[in-house]
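Dear support,

I submitted the protein below through the web form. The confirmation email said the job was done, but the results page showed an empty box. After a refresh the structure appeared. I'm attaching both so you can tell me whether what I see now is the final result or a partial one.
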Amino acid sequence: MVSDQKIIKSAVYVSFALLLTMVSYMSPSQSALAQTQATVRAKGQTESQTVKPANWIDNLPATFQQSILWKADYETGNLEQWSIPTAKYPGGGILLTAEDDVTAKATTVQAHSGKYSGEATIRNAIRATRGNKAVRFMRWTTDAYDRGGAELPLECYYSTWVYLPEAYDPKKHAPWDPGDGGWWNIFQFKSNDEQNESQSGWSLNLEKDPQSRRLSCYLYSQINSDRSWEPEEAVEIPVRKWFHIEAFVKVSQEETGRIEIWLDGESIIRADNVRTAVKSPNPNIMWGIGNYTDHIDGGRKIGTATIYFDDSLISTKPASPFAARDSNASAVRN
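What the results page shows now:
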Protein backbone atom coordinates (compact mmCIF):
# COMPACT_ATOMS: atom_id res chain seq x y z
CA MET A 1 0.00 0.00 0.00
CA VAL A 2 1.29 3.47 -0.90
CA SER A 3 1.58 5.68 2.16
CA ASP A 4 -0.31 8.97 2.46
CA GLN A 5 3.03 10.79 2.71
CA LYS A 6 4.19 9.40 -0.68
CA ILE A 7 0.88 10.36 -2.28
CA ILE A 8 1.19 13.92 -0.94
CA LYS A 9 4.78 14.21 -2.16
CA SER A 10 3.82 12.90 -5.62
CA ALA A 11 0.97 15.40 -5.86
CA VAL A 12 3.27 18.24 -4.90
CA TYR A 13 5.87 17.30 -7.52
CA VAL A 14 3.23 16.88 -10.25
CA SER A 15 1.72 20.29 -9.42
CA PHE A 16 5.17 21.83 -9.37
CA ALA A 17 5.96 20.36 -12.83
CA LEU A 18 2.66 21.59 -14.30
CA LEU A 19 3.27 25.10 -12.94
CA LEU A 20 6.75 25.22 -14.44
CA THR A 21 5.24 24.23 -17.83
CA MET A 22 2.83 27.17 -17.54
CA VAL A 23 5.69 29.50 -16.69
CA SER A 24 7.13 29.15 -20.21
CA TYR A 25 4.08 31.08 -21.53
CA MET A 26 4.49 33.97 -19.08
CA SER A 27 6.37 37.27 -19.21
CA PRO A 28 9.81 37.38 -17.51
CA SER A 29 8.52 39.07 -14.34
CA GLN A 30 5.42 36.81 -14.21
CA SER A 31 7.67 33.80 -14.71
CA ALA A 32 9.99 34.80 -11.87
CA LEU A 33 7.04 35.34 -9.54
CA ALA A 34 5.40 32.01 -10.47
CA GLN A 35 8.63 30.06 -10.04
CA THR A 36 9.18 31.58 -6.62
CA GLN A 37 5.62 30.77 -5.56
CA ALA A 38 6.10 27.18 -6.71
CA THR A 39 9.30 26.91 -4.68
CA VAL A 40 7.47 28.15 -1.59
CA ARG A 41 4.71 25.55 -1.98
CA ALA A 42 7.04 22.64 -2.74
CA LYS A 43 9.41 23.41 0.09
CA GLY A 44 6.56 24.11 2.49
CA GLN A 45 5.96 20.34 2.84
CA THR A 46 9.28 19.88 4.68
CA GLU A 47 10.38 23.29 5.98
CA SER A 48 8.00 23.14 8.93
CA GLN A 49 9.93 20.11 10.20
CA THR A 50 13.30 21.90 10.20
CA VAL A 51 14.89 24.32 12.64
CA LYS A 52 14.69 27.82 11.21
CA PRO A 53 17.44 30.39 11.79
CA ALA A 54 16.45 33.61 13.54
CA ASN A 55 17.37 35.68 10.49
CA TRP A 56 14.55 35.82 7.92
CA ILE A 57 16.84 36.27 4.92
CA ASP A 58 18.99 33.28 5.90
CA ASN A 59 15.83 31.18 6.09
CA LEU A 60 14.86 31.83 2.45
CA PRO A 61 15.44 28.96 -0.01
CA ALA A 62 18.90 28.66 -1.53
CA THR A 63 17.42 29.03 -5.02
CA PHE A 64 16.07 32.43 -4.07
CA GLN A 65 19.18 33.51 -2.18
CA GLN A 66 21.16 33.09 -5.38
CA SER A 67 19.07 35.92 -6.84
CA ILE A 68 19.95 38.39 -4.07
CA LEU A 69 22.16 41.22 -5.33
CA TRP A 70 22.32 43.15 -2.06
CA LYS A 71 20.83 42.81 1.42
CA ALA A 72 20.63 44.46 4.83
CA ASP A 73 19.59 42.39 7.83
CA TYR A 74 20.91 45.07 10.25
CA GLU A 75 22.50 42.38 12.43
CA THR A 76 25.80 44.28 12.28
CA GLY A 77 24.20 46.57 14.88
CA ASN A 78 24.60 49.61 12.60
CA LEU A 79 23.60 50.86 9.15
CA GLU A 80 26.88 50.01 7.44
CA GLN A 81 25.28 47.51 5.08
CA TRP A 82 23.74 50.56 3.43
CA SER A 83 26.66 52.98 3.72
CA ILE A 84 29.74 50.67 3.52
CA PRO A 85 31.96 53.28 5.27
CA THR A 86 35.19 51.36 4.63
CA ALA A 87 34.79 51.81 0.86
CA LYS A 88 35.97 54.79 -1.14
CA TYR A 89 32.98 54.56 -3.49
CA PRO A 90 30.24 52.90 -1.41
CA GLY A 91 27.40 53.09 -3.96
CA GLY A 92 24.90 54.02 -1.28
CA GLY A 93 24.50 55.73 2.04
CA ILE A 94 22.33 57.30 4.72
CA LEU A 95 21.07 60.66 3.49
CA LEU A 96 19.73 63.12 6.07
CA THR A 97 17.81 66.36 5.63
CA ALA A 98 17.70 68.74 8.63
CA GLU A 99 20.24 66.69 10.57
CA ASP A 100 19.42 68.27 13.94
CA ASP A 101 15.84 67.02 13.64
CA VAL A 102 16.38 63.47 12.35
CA THR A 103 17.92 60.22 13.60
CA ALA A 104 19.09 57.15 11.67
CA LYS A 105 20.42 54.15 13.56
CA ALA A 106 20.19 50.43 14.20
CA THR A 107 18.03 49.52 17.17
CA THR A 108 16.76 46.59 19.23
CA VAL A 109 13.44 48.29 20.00
CA GLN A 110 11.81 46.38 17.14
CA ALA A 111 13.01 43.58 14.86
CA HIS A 112 11.27 41.51 12.22
CA SER A 113 13.92 38.82 12.64
CA GLY A 114 17.20 38.59 14.47
CA LYS A 115 17.95 41.27 17.04
CA TYR A 116 18.26 44.55 15.12
CA SER A 117 16.34 46.71 12.68
CA GLY A 118 16.95 50.11 11.13
CA GLU A 119 15.25 53.11 12.73
CA ALA A 120 14.36 56.35 10.91
CA THR A 121 12.98 59.14 13.10
CA ILE A 122 12.03 62.69 12.15
CA ARG A 123 11.10 65.57 14.49
CA ASN A 124 9.68 69.08 14.07
CA ALA A 125 7.94 68.30 10.77
CA ILE A 126 5.11 70.70 11.56
CA ARG A 127 2.71 72.37 9.12
CA ALA A 128 5.36 72.71 6.39
CA THR A 129 6.78 75.73 8.24
CA ARG A 130 10.07 74.17 9.30
CA GLY A 131 11.21 72.63 6.04
CA ASN A 132 11.55 69.03 4.91
CA LYS A 133 12.67 66.41 7.41
CA ALA A 134 14.12 63.24 5.93
CA VAL A 135 15.98 60.04 6.67
CA ARG A 136 16.74 58.04 3.54
CA PHE A 137 18.57 54.71 3.29
CA MET A 138 19.78 54.62 -0.34
CA ARG A 139 21.49 52.18 -2.72
CA TRP A 140 22.48 52.69 -6.34
CA THR A 141 24.92 49.77 -6.71
CA THR A 142 24.94 46.13 -5.67
CA ASP A 143 28.09 46.71 -3.61
CA ALA A 144 30.75 49.39 -3.28
CA TYR A 145 32.27 50.24 -6.67
CA ASP A 146 35.75 49.51 -5.31
CA ARG A 147 34.56 46.08 -4.11
CA GLY A 148 33.25 45.04 -7.51
CA GLY A 149 29.76 46.49 -7.22
CA ALA A 150 27.69 47.22 -10.31
CA GLU A 151 24.88 49.65 -11.01
CA LEU A 152 21.43 48.25 -10.30
CA PRO A 153 19.82 46.19 -13.11
CA LEU A 154 17.27 47.71 -15.45
CA GLU A 155 14.74 45.13 -14.23
CA CYS A 156 14.80 44.22 -10.56
CA TYR A 157 12.87 43.69 -7.31
CA TYR A 158 13.26 45.87 -4.20
CA SER A 159 11.78 44.88 -0.87
CA THR A 160 11.78 45.50 2.86
CA TRP A 161 9.80 44.76 6.01
CA VAL A 162 8.31 47.83 7.68
CA TYR A 163 6.93 48.55 11.17
CA LEU A 164 4.88 51.61 12.11
CA PRO A 165 4.44 52.07 15.87
CA GLU A 166 1.63 54.61 15.41
CA ALA A 167 -0.95 55.57 12.77
CA TYR A 168 0.72 58.80 11.70
CA ASP A 169 -1.13 61.35 9.57
CA PRO A 170 0.54 63.64 7.00
CA LYS A 171 -2.72 65.42 6.08
CA LYS A 172 -2.52 69.22 5.89
CA HIS A 173 -5.46 71.51 6.53
CA ALA A 174 -6.44 75.07 5.63
CA PRO A 175 -5.34 77.72 6.23
CA TRP A 176 -1.78 76.41 6.59
CA ASP A 177 -1.87 73.84 3.78
CA PRO A 178 0.46 75.24 1.06
CA GLY A 179 -1.56 73.41 -1.58
CA ASP A 180 -0.19 69.85 -1.67
CA GLY A 181 -2.62 68.36 0.85
CA GLY A 182 0.15 66.52 2.65
CA TRP A 183 2.59 63.76 1.68
CA TRP A 184 4.72 61.15 3.43
CA ASN A 185 7.34 59.26 1.41
CA ILE A 186 8.63 55.94 2.80
CA PHE A 187 9.87 54.14 -0.37
CA GLN A 188 11.32 55.83 -3.46
CA PHE A 189 13.19 55.60 -6.74
CA LYS A 190 15.48 58.23 -8.24
CA SER A 191 17.78 58.40 -11.26
CA ASN A 192 20.65 60.56 -12.49
CA ASP A 193 19.98 63.01 -15.30
CA GLU A 194 22.18 64.18 -18.17
CA GLN A 195 24.20 66.34 -15.74
CA ASN A 196 24.62 63.36 -13.41
CA GLU A 197 22.33 64.99 -10.85
CA SER A 198 19.86 62.73 -9.05
CA GLN A 199 16.18 63.44 -9.71
CA SER A 200 13.09 62.07 -8.01
CA GLY A 201 11.11 59.65 -10.13
CA TRP A 202 8.67 57.64 -8.03
CA SER A 203 7.65 57.46 -4.40
CA LEU A 204 5.33 55.25 -2.38
CA ASN A 205 3.48 57.57 -0.03
CA LEU A 206 1.30 56.77 2.97
CA GLU A 207 -1.89 58.63 3.82
CA LYS A 208 -4.61 58.41 6.46
CA ASP A 209 -8.27 58.14 5.56
CA PRO A 210 -10.19 60.82 7.47
CA GLN A 211 -13.29 58.62 7.87
CA SER A 212 -11.86 55.20 8.75
CA ARG A 213 -8.65 56.62 10.27
CA ARG A 214 -6.78 53.79 8.57
CA LEU A 215 -3.54 54.13 6.64
CA SER A 216 -3.37 53.47 2.91
CA CYS A 217 -0.85 54.19 0.16
CA TYR A 218 -0.42 55.51 -3.36
CA LEU A 219 2.33 55.85 -5.95
CA TYR A 220 3.40 59.32 -6.99
CA SER A 221 5.58 60.29 -9.95
CA GLN A 222 7.09 63.62 -10.93
CA ILE A 223 8.22 62.43 -14.36
CA ASN A 224 4.92 61.33 -15.93
CA SER A 225 1.87 63.25 -17.13
CA ASP A 226 -0.25 61.18 -14.75
CA ARG A 227 1.09 61.83 -11.28
CA SER A 228 -0.74 59.45 -8.95
CA TRP A 229 -1.68 55.74 -8.95
CA GLU A 230 -3.82 54.23 -6.21
CA PRO A 231 -4.69 50.61 -5.37
CA GLU A 232 -7.54 49.23 -7.48
CA GLU A 233 -9.12 47.95 -4.28
CA ALA A 234 -8.92 49.47 -0.82
CA VAL A 235 -5.90 48.32 1.17
CA GLU A 236 -4.95 48.92 4.77
CA ILE A 237 -1.38 49.49 5.85
CA PRO A 238 -0.92 47.72 9.20
CA VAL A 239 0.09 49.56 12.36
CA ARG A 240 2.05 47.92 15.19
CA LYS A 241 2.60 44.89 12.95
CA TRP A 242 5.42 44.12 10.52
CA PHE A 243 4.37 44.27 6.87
CA HIS A 244 6.27 43.65 3.65
CA ILE A 245 6.58 46.05 0.72
CA GLU A 246 8.09 45.00 -2.61
CA ALA A 247 8.45 46.85 -5.89
CA PHE A 248 9.36 45.61 -9.35
CA VAL A 249 10.81 48.26 -11.65
CA LYS A 250 11.54 48.08 -15.35
CA VAL A 251 13.76 51.08 -16.02
CA SER A 252 12.85 53.17 -19.04
CA GLN A 253 13.38 56.79 -20.02
CA GLU A 254 10.44 56.50 -22.41
CA GLU A 255 6.85 55.50 -21.74
CA THR A 256 7.68 51.79 -21.91
CA GLY A 257 8.61 51.18 -18.28
CA ARG A 258 6.71 49.48 -15.50
CA ILE A 259 6.45 49.66 -11.73
CA GLU A 260 4.42 47.32 -9.53
CA ILE A 261 3.92 47.26 -5.76
CA TRP A 262 3.12 44.27 -3.53
CA LEU A 263 1.88 44.46 0.07
CA ASP A 264 2.39 41.26 2.07
CA GLY A 265 2.63 39.29 -1.17
CA GLU A 266 -0.43 40.80 -2.87
CA SER A 267 -0.11 43.05 -5.91
CA ILE A 268 -1.86 46.32 -5.06
CA ILE A 269 -0.63 48.92 -7.60
CA ARG A 270 0.70 48.55 -11.13
CA ALA A 271 1.67 51.26 -13.60
CA ASP A 272 2.43 50.15 -17.17
CA ASN A 273 3.86 52.11 -20.10
CA VAL A 274 5.37 54.80 -17.89
CA ARG A 275 8.70 56.55 -17.52
CA THR A 276 10.63 55.18 -14.58
CA ALA A 277 13.84 57.20 -15.05
CA VAL A 278 14.86 60.64 -16.30
CA LYS A 279 16.81 61.24 -19.49
CA SER A 280 20.44 60.19 -19.21
CA PRO A 281 23.17 58.80 -21.50
CA ASN A 282 23.22 55.74 -19.25
CA PRO A 283 19.83 54.53 -17.96
CA ASN A 284 20.06 54.07 -14.20
CA ILE A 285 18.01 53.65 -11.03
CA MET A 286 18.47 54.36 -7.31
CA TRP A 287 16.37 52.88 -4.52
CA GLY A 288 15.61 54.32 -1.12
CA ILE A 289 13.50 53.66 1.96
CA GLY A 290 12.99 56.07 4.79
CA ASN A 291 10.89 58.70 6.52
CA TYR A 292 10.39 61.92 4.55
CA THR A 293 7.83 64.74 4.86
CA ASP A 294 7.34 68.35 5.97
CA HIS A 295 4.34 67.66 8.22
CA ILE A 296 3.31 64.68 10.34
CA ASP A 297 0.77 64.21 13.12
CA GLY A 298 -1.22 61.38 14.65
CA GLY A 299 1.52 60.20 16.99
CA ARG A 300 2.35 61.04 20.55
CA LYS A 301 3.86 64.36 19.51
CA ILE A 302 3.07 66.48 16.49
CA GLY A 303 5.95 66.65 14.03
CA THR A 304 7.55 63.39 15.23
CA ALA A 305 7.38 59.99 13.52
CA THR A 306 9.46 56.80 13.67
CA ILE A 307 9.61 53.96 11.14
CA TYR A 308 11.50 50.67 11.51
CA PHE A 309 12.88 48.66 8.58
CA ASP A 310 14.28 45.14 8.51
CA ASP A 311 15.39 42.42 6.09
CA SER A 312 15.79 44.73 3.09
CA LEU A 313 16.65 43.18 -0.29
CA ILE A 314 17.51 43.85 -3.90
CA SER A 315 16.98 40.73 -5.99
CA THR A 316 16.32 39.44 -9.49
CA LYS A 317 13.46 37.27 -8.21
CA PRO A 318 10.48 38.35 -6.09
CA ALA A 319 10.52 37.91 -2.32
CA SER A 320 6.77 38.54 -2.05
CA PRO A 321 5.69 34.86 -2.08
CA PHE A 322 7.81 34.23 1.02
CA ALA A 323 6.51 37.41 2.63
CA ALA A 324 2.93 36.28 1.96
CA ARG A 325 3.63 32.92 3.57
CA ASP A 326 5.25 34.41 6.65
CA SER A 327 2.79 37.29 6.99
CA ASN A 328 -0.13 34.84 6.91
CA ALA A 329 1.57 32.60 9.46
CA SER A 330 2.10 35.60 11.74
CA ALA A 331 -1.56 36.57 11.41
CA VAL A 332 -2.63 33.03 12.43
CA ARG A 333 -0.33 33.12 15.48
CA ASN A 334 -1.63 36.53 16.52
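Response: this is the final, complete result; the empty box was a page-load delay. The chain has two domains: 1-51, 57-333.
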